[in-house]
Every structure is written in C-alpha cells, then in structure tokens.
Amino acid sequence: LMAVGLVIAIPLLPLDSNVVRSILIGLLAFSLVVGLAFYVSVVRFEIARRWIKAFIRFLGWIIPPLGKKIKWPEIEDALSGFQETYHNSLKNRALIFWVVFITVVQVGLELLQPYAIFRALGVAIPFWVIIVTIATIKTLAVLSPIPGDSGLVEGINFGVYASLSHIPQQIIATQTILFRILDAWLLWIISGIVTSMVSVSMLRKQGK
C-alpha cells in the first residue's frame, strides 16, 4: 500500500528537489525489498527458510551462548507450522478482504490526521508532503530498535516537513507534539491506566 501511494503521488512530487528524489528512491527501494520478501515467503518459502536458518546460525556464531541453546528440530517444526498457517490464511478470501480493508482505512486515517492538525493550525500543506512524511516514518520505524519509536518519529516528522515545505518551524514543532499525542502518547496513557486497573483488580481477587 505504501508503494502504491508513492506511485500515485509521483505526479505531484517536485522531482527537481534533491531531498524529494533521495527520499522517494529510498522508499521505493524499501518497498521493492518488502515486495521481494513477500514473494519469497509466499511462492519460494524454501529460500526464506534457508535465509532464516543462515541468520540463526550467524547469531549463534556471534553469540556463542545463544548458539549452544539452538534446537534445530524445534526451529524446523516452527518454520513448517508458520508456512502452513501462512499459506492457509492466504487462501481465506474473507480474511484477505478485511485485512486489506482495515489497512486502507488505517492508512487513510494516518494521512488525514496530520492534514487535519495542520489545517487546525491555519496552515495549508500539499498532500504529497504528508504522504512522503508518513511513508518515511513507517519505513524507518520498522528498522528502529527504540521502544515505541520515541524520538525517532518526532525527529523524522519535524525534519521531513521542514525540508519539504516552507512552514515555520514553530508550527511544525506544534504539529509534531499534537501528532504524537494523538498517534501514540494518548494510547499509551489509556492502555497504561486500563492495564493498571485490570492488574489491581486481579491482585484483589487473588488476595480474597
């Protein structure tokens, strides 16, 4: 979906900008890698199996204690089970439809959220800038080891908008904070409160 969105946005992009060209090439390259991985996982899973086993061997080589605990029969069973479950799920048309539908709705809301925030701040921003920014955030967040991508999302959000638009930095900073409040922080606070309430309730029941 990200690749499709980028292709649709290409006619709107100022390709004479080095920044836009660099970001676009990186995102399209990442999309091709993900597409290749999906193809291998569906059609040529044996190749994926060899890659996974090679990666596990590499981890065992650089981390000897981990290598000693590797149990190849269990790994083989897990890979076979994953392959069977994965292929069966792809045959379920209803499941595929709802996954694609929910994903499209989610992506649409993720694009509309920053647009609505900028409009609320009295700023008009080209929609292609939002597409490129969100695509960049999603791509780099996949590779991020940081819990919740804290700091990374904020930095990318501010940097890309500042590079691709003439919006004052004060407004971009405000949008970044509001974006993260709605996109993550509010969800973390609510989930933390709910989890704490459920935990306290379970502890009280155990105490009785």
List the helices and strands and how they pair.
Blueprint: H1 2-9, H2 18-42, H3 45-62, H4 64-69, H5 72-90, H6 93-120, H7 127-142, H8 152-164, H9 169-207
Helix pairs in contact: 1-7, 2-3, 2-7, 6-7, 6-9, 7-8, 8-9
Into which percentage range does the β-strand content fall?
Answer: under 5%
| Helix residue percentage | over 70%
Q: What's the Cα radius of gyration? A: 22 Å
**What's the main sheet like?**
none
How many strand segments? Answer: 0
What class would the helix/strand composition place it in? mainly alpha
Q: Name the overall outline.
A: globular
Number of distinct helices: 9
Overall pLDDT metric: 78
First-to-last CA distance: 51 Å
Secondary-structure element sequence? HHHHHHHHH
Task: Indicate the low-confidence ranges by residue numbers.
Answer: none
Folded structure, characterized:
- The protein is mainly alpha-helical and 208 residues long.
- The protein has nine helices and no strands.
- The chain has helices at residues 2-9, 18-42, 45-62, 64-69, 72-90, 93-120, 127-142, 152-164, 169-207.
- Helix 6 crosses helix 9, helix 7 (127-142) runs antiparallel to helix 8 and helix 8 packs antiparallel against helix 9 (169-207).
